[in-house]
Specification:
Elements: H1 3-15, H2 18-25, H3 29-43, E1 48-51, E2 54-57, H4 59-82, E3 90-96, H5 100-113, E4 118-124, H6 127-135, E5 141-146, H7 151-160, E6 163-172, E7 174-178, E8 199-202, E9 225-228, H8 231-241, E10 244-247, H9 253-256, E11 260-264, E12 275-283, H10 290-302
Parallel strand pairs: 3-4, 3-5, 8-9
Antiparallel strand pairs: 1-2, 5-12, 6-12, 7-10, 7-11
Helix pairs in contact: 1-2, 1-4, 2-3, 5-10
């Protein structure tokens, strides 16, 4: 097995096509196919299934790809560190539910390392995609939350993907809304007071369950719900429709602006006043490089928490 073959496999997985991968790698398709066949024979597994709709990894192939991506990233980091003439850009990616503090930490990380030597990406996506990106090593770090309601389901998904959850901070539920909303100046807001306003929720896809929702207290019965796919739209709906969402209350005004506020949610009798445990996820056994450490320490700095230790990451 060679690094070149690993690169071939990763490229085929990303492109989903032998033709497109061969074009990307400046190879003929027969040469690429033969090289992958040799690797499959050496490993004793079938990495890809070829269909009329494209090329897809088998379960064994996906497991190999997870390890291969991590190995190839380590090679790229070492190559960049010891070769001044290297043109390979190190890659760093974060996947997250929609949190502005993640954007802030990402911005500070990019400012330190710059974009000449690093290929950065940040993905605000559905909960399942955040977990999937970390599982398949498309992202080195993911940011999600756990609660009493979703903990069992999310923990099972993490376990199946060989992913570990690291605690950052606990917070209670808040109602996030426009500062001119009729309830914006309340000391706290109850579920009953929200009945006349639309609840805004990030769309998790057609097959998603309430356990994958980004918002806390999804187990309650909301009579008015609007699904949105991005933060900008959600903020617009808060202004245009007096909508609201239930969140951690952690708002970065520097990036989100000062037109919005978070008011504590107060559960009445029979309604849970849930807590959120925010944390980051990574592959078990994965050691973050200096960029990952910088990002995590910027997250901790945002919450006035001590830097992460080498044992934690």
């Amino acid at each position: 097995m060679t690094l070149q073959q690993i690169k071939y496999v990763i490229t085929v997985s990303e492109k989903g096509s032998m033709n497109k991968a061969a074009e990307e790698l400046y190879l003929s398709q027969p040469t690429l196919t033969a090289s992958i066949h040799e690797l499959e024979k050496e490993l004793g597994i079938t990495i890809f299934i070829r269909t009329s709709r494209g090329v897809f990894p088998t379960s064994e192939g996906q497991e190999f790809l997870n390890d291969a991506r991590q190995l190839y990233q380590e090679y790229e980091w070492i190559s960049d560190k010891y070769s001044d003439s290297s043109t390979i850009k190190q890659q760093f990616s974060v996947s997250s539910q929609h949190y502005s503090f993640v954007d802030k930490a990402f911005v500070e990380t990019v400012k330190q390392f710059g974009t000449r030597s690093f290929d950065f990406s940040i993905r605000e996506e559905e909960t399942a995609r955040v977990i999937g990106n970390v599982r398949e090593m498309r992202s080195q770090i993911g940011i999600i939350y756990l609660s009493d309601f979703n903990r069992k389901i999310i923990t099972k998904m993490l376990h199946e993907g060989s992913i570990e959850f690291k605690h950052i901070i606990d917070t209670s539920a808040y109602v996030y809304l426009w500062k001119k909303h009729p309830l914006a100046n309340n000391e706290y807001i109850t579920f009953k007071q929200l009945m006349d306003y639309p609840c805004l929720t990030f769309d998790q896809g057609p097959d998603a369950s309430a356990y994958l929702a980004e918002e806390i207290l999804t187990e309650l019965d909301y009579p008015r719900i609007i699904h949105a796919t991005d933060r900008a739209t959600m903020l617009n709906l808060m202004v245009g429709l007096n909508g609201y969402t239930l969140c951690s209350g952690i708002i970065c005004e520097e990036l989100n602006g000062s037109d919005y506020t978070a008011v504590p949610f107060k559960g009445s009798k029979g309604e849970p006043n849930s807590r959120m445990e925010l944390g980051y996820i990574q592959k078990k056994g994965y050691v973050q490089n200096r960029v990952g450490k910088k990002f995590l320490n910027e997250v901790m700095k945002y919450f006035n928490l001590p830097p992460v230790s080498d044992e934690d990451i």
